[in-house]
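User: hey, got a sec? need TonB-dependent receptor folded
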Amino acid sequence: MSLTKAHGGAPAVAATLLFLHSQPGAYAAESDSDTTLPTVEVKAQSATEADHGYVAKRSTAGSKTDTPLLETPQAISVIDNAEFTARAAQNITQAVAYTPGLLTGMFGPSTRDDYFNLRGFDAPQYLDGTRLAGANYANLRIDPYGLERIEVLRGPASVLYGQNPPGGLINMVSKRPTAQPFHELQMLGGSFGRVQGALDFSGPLDEQGKFLYRLTALGRGSDSQVDFSKDDRYFVAPSFTWQPDASTSLTFLSHYQKDDAGNTMQFLPYQGSVVGNPDGRLPTSTFLGEPGFDHYQREQFAVGYAFEHRFNRHWAVRQNLRYADVKSDYPVTFALGFVTDNDGVPVDYRTVSRLAGLYRDQAGTFTLDNHAQADFDTGNVLHKALLGLDFRQINGDRQRGFGFPSDLDMYSPVYGQPFAAPQIETLVNQQQDQIGLYGQDQIKWKQWIATIGVRYDWASNASLRTDYYDADTDSIDYAKPSYSSSRQDDAEFTYRTGLSYLFDSGVAPYFNYSESFEPAAGTTFAGTPFKPTTGQQYEIGVKYQPPGVNALITLAAFELTQQNVVTPDPDPAHVGYSIQTGAARSRGIELEGKARLEMGLDVTAALALIESQVTKTNEANQLGKQLTYTPETQGSLWLDYTQPSGALAGLGLGGGVRYTGSNYGDLSNSQKAPSYTLIDASVHYELGKLDRRLRGARLGVNITNLFDREYVTTCGEGSCYFGDRRNVLASLRYNW
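Assistant: Yep! Here you go:
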């Protein structure tokens, strides 16, 4: 891409804004005299609506009910659209970068997916309360422009959401139709030739407001910091709400997205990226693949609905349904390591051998969540009870093929050497099912709130593998396929309990115990299927919502353990097999504060101190070692100030600092990615303060990694990944 694509864009939009505002009725006349304002009806904030600020008051993530965060006995971070838009987040990784206990950007500026580690474990992603699942490289990736908010639920969540790792999850909330008309146009351009346009229109379709619509769309063309790797996208998300009466709502949600990107995952060796190399440090733009072969293309769509009906003040039912389909085409070249001599010593520390892989994946996912809510009292004890049944099915196809391109000199690469293109060697068809029955009661007595939950899950995983490789002829023979199949069934109970006390001062101490489970594929030497891995967490904390101040502070301390971890079988007769005697532990303290102050200052601050280790394993070099991708210390602070009045009214400045401690990419802790500190900055101006005809227009410039720090995000298993370089984005946004 070239920056010349952006020429003329900003003046054209500015001229359009001037034209629109010069028309009769385009804006209400302003007066310098005192004016009596009309009465405004104030509505309670909904857990699925935008907060229009940094401080969320409610969330459904921790209870599946519309519950104040102060009354939820679990640490939850909510990143509203206003916050991640202020930082010009271009993906979910950037949107949640100021969240405690969450490692982001694990594999650098990936055009393929967003990857997270939360409290020492993988953090899966959800959309509108149901899992975003896929098949290997065919995963749905959600653009932040289509979201109202992002909720990070920290700690085990299996009682509400079924099979999950114990660290927590990330739930994204889609933009929904609004009763008030809303329109937005946006143009953005910046580093690496990025040119992007977006629109967001919403409002009622009839005078009664029973029919609402929303249309969100985005298109961009861009290169990336890695050579030969683009990052193009087209995204559209229409939605529609029908509200026949005050007790019933049906919202149809959908989106379509097409990504045409390159391979930004570099797979760099440790020498040259983290530690010294005789030939110096590798450039962060290093590309070890093959131009014309490597790319990542994805096409995804999703359709579904969110239904809610309240029969009376006691009973309500909700149903969320979604079908999603995603296809990916991912031919990629990996660096396997340095070319070595017969003794395994690198010949020159600059030439690497490579493997070419052809990955074609497809996944169709159906998710359904039904629950009934009963609000009642027993004497002076209030109950908010929930009974639900959810179902998820994933049907995936994975095609694989491999080839061996020529070795490559990393410092003076010569691309385009002929090699046999990979052919499809294997096809795997897989179906995963989960059915969960869950119940929960939120019990309130005076200022005490207790939360009790239980769930039972049935999970199955069936696969059929087709091999086209003929070992006798060392060739691919599609006429003589061989087949193998497997099936695994699991069932598990999980429990959860929590207790909070609400002081009149806005202080709410809490305690919770929660569990998780996750199926583990495979069998022992005896053929016994592995049991699910399980997790338990104890968490104590305190939340503080100062009276009269728009702020929320959360302090949490936790200890999380995981059992049934797969580890090598120590029996010398069982080489290559595993047993489930491994265990891990993660414990720490997290602090988060968010505030929107009357003086025009928005604040978000976070700190996480985590001690993690392998507590049981048959690998002697792993016992007591730190868990992968889990820094001991993380901290961040973001401030955004907008001048409310005076000659500089409408001018805003933002700045942030992010510190990430060192982390290991393997359980033996042999390769460490060093700590790093990054500085972000922004400046923005409301153009309406300059000329009333431009009211609703906002000009902004955002810079991430202001001082262009070169750093490695993670490094393990022989592959290292550079983090985001300095990125400058200029945007012009117009709302009316």
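Quick note: DSSP finds four helices and 39 strands in the chain. Let me know if you need anything else on TonB-dependent receptor.
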